[in-house]
Amino acid sequence: MTVHTPASAPETQGQLMIPPRPRTWPKALGVTAVLAALTILTTIPAIGGVEIDLASIARNWTNGVDRIVQMLTPDWSILPRTWQPMLETLQMAIVGAAISAGLAVPLSMWAARPTNPNGVTRRAVRFVLNVVRAVPDLVYATVLVAMVGVGTLPGVVTLVLFDIGIVVKLVSEAIDSADAHYMEAGRAAGGTQTQINRVTALPQTWPVFASQVLYSLELNVRISAILGLVGAGGIGRLIDEMRGFYRYDALGTIILEILVVVLLIEWASNVLRKRLR
Amino acid sequence: MTATDTAAPARTPALPIPPRPRQVAARAAATIVTIVVLVSFWGLDLEWSKIAQLPQDLVHYGRLMFSDPDWSMLPEAALQTWRSVSMAWIGAIAGVVLSTLLGIPAAHGVGPAWVRFPLRWSFAVIRAVPDVLIAIIILTVTGLTPFTGALALAIGGIGTHAKWTYETIEAVPPGTAEAVRASGGSLWEVVRWGLWPVAAPELMSLALYRFEINVRTSAILGLIGVGGIGAMLTQYTQHREWDVVGVLIIVVVVVTMLIDAVSGKVRRRIMEGATVRDVERKH
Amino acid sequence: MSEQSHAVGSEAEGATSASGSWPISLTDVTVRYPNGVVALKDVSLEIEPGQMVAVVGLSGSGKSTLIRTVNGLVQPTAGTVRVGEHEMTALRGKALRHARGDIGMIFQSFNLADRTSVFRNTMVGRFSHTSTWRTVLGISSHHDRDIVMRALDSVGMLEKVWERAGALSGGQKQRVAIARALSQEPSVMLADEPVASLDPPTAHAVMHDLERINHERGLTVMVNLHLMDLARQYTTRMIGLRAGEVVFDGPAASATDADFEEIYGRPVQPRDRLDVS
What we know:
The complex is a heterotrimer. Chain A is mostly helical. Chain A has helices at 9-12, 25-41, 54-71, 79-111, 119-134, 137-148, 152-177, 182-188, 193-227, 236-244, 248-276. Chain B is extended. The interface between A and B is large, with 65 and 68 residues.
């Protein structure tokens, strides 16, 4: 180590010691190339890509605008027919959230490290849940409708599967990231893992858990609104019917109604969430 | 406080144990929730025989789908999967570009109120409309094509993605933007040098996340006929060719998990600041 | 690992766990963590029944590890640990949990489940005497209930029994933690930096409680401290630990500042004392 005194400064004057600039461009080029290649590959119809047909937009854009205009002039006379299916949608959402909440309690405990130190079972539960989450909701509904027939049952099962996927993921991550020091006391007192989880981890995670279940209820209302498109019950059934008759004004009404219900549910669950703390 | 002998609890005089508080509010809430759930369950009018049958059905069809999948359909499934992924990718790029262009002026401190509020309201309206319905409107313009799917994903994505964009920009600590403003920067310079460098990693990570979401949604859009793995799945499910359905579900799961894993890894690298680590490694 | 792995847990069944205090004996205990850090090097100690021992050292000296090998929360990589008739290093699973039931422990950060009542937190101490299904269903026997209430009464926390643990002050929390350990009816009490998170008056009160437990119940007490004056004032024997090795072992009252400098490996500073005067 040499100490730089002001006296040594004049020597370097006029000739700055510029450190070499780190080469970032090869990397930037690489990233750009990958992005460009992917984009090109996804636009080749011959290998399954999307044919970008801007001409059709130029040709038919008025159709879309007509539909939107129709939707923006809602036909309120449809409203009485929506009550029953909308109620069904809400019931499906609630039942789905309730069943999945019950199943998610033990599953979340199994999927988190502090509450399940056994790596094998923990990874197994996580893997199964990753698989469950990888299947889109409407795909479940389509297959389940083919299995058990048209009705609300395939809809409820779809919602349960979807909810378990997200609730267990979010709750187990919350348990993982929380400082679970209270576990050590239970272990030092000679408790089994189940005892420790029941008495300490469960009450500790209860607010996160309840809040995630409420969140899944909100998502359920949105999802069960379209489940009817594939025959799984709820207001989607009516959407499918109106769409078949090109009744876009009625569709506008239904969308507005869904919007109102979703907002109400979000408001209610926010109120509940605040009380939970 | 006198010491009590805990070894012989039964013989010592009774302790003044305070009465246990009754948690009226909690009990009432629990009762209400239980009633709502039970009423919903009862109102759904589910057939008990079908529920009892359900586990058996799942095993039965599970066996049909996965005991001997028809792997000869794999090439076709792969092609359709690529179509879905293509929809997701193009939808993500177009959606992210649109969301960035619309989201930045919607951020507090960038656009004026008369720009911000209409933009935010239109994002909220888009969020309220299910993606499937957006696709139904768009297909009157571009027909039952994958392009419709990509457009629906792009426009449907604006609802949430533009919201994330302006929230990210608003979450940028004001320091850097203030510094640019203090040295006399214009609004454009503030956005380019004060906000963008700080928000960019987060925005890029969100863009990849948008792609992950689109991969799932594109399979759903296939169900209404815009093509891809979802369309194929509907078709074979309606024809009850379960051995093909099994292959398709396996393909969907594998591809989705793979994309999630790769995209997740890239996102983590972006957020950790890969460049910083590279520079450090050289020293 | 030890070769004498005969089960000793069965002998303990006959005697009631609260009947007396036990000796602690460590023979050539070495702890090497998976990351290569050696926390304890060949530590051998004999602690008489009913002794009150302070383990003194800077943070990172291995005193937390030392105390955790006594109840098996940390398993040594070499050497044997005996507590009373239990050979802790030979026990696994159920037998280890039973042995831990006879060893009470309190922690620096209290390790209470904040969202749960004081009662439930204290009940954790009865884990090793309660079947798992009883805990899961939340059924507590009258006997256990009585023990818990008396333990809370003996630390003056009975009136807070139904309050949330999170609503208590630091000193109150540590008292609940002591009650939790006492309700195990232990023969040995371990305390890992019990007063490090407390202000001086509360620290003295908690140390006083520990002293009282030692005197009145005759429990063997092993307490980790990093403050010299607390060790001098409340304990009879002091063990100094530096970099995982015992560098001092003698009567606490007569330990000089020079002895502390030897333990700390540096001159004594004001922050090594509780009461800065």
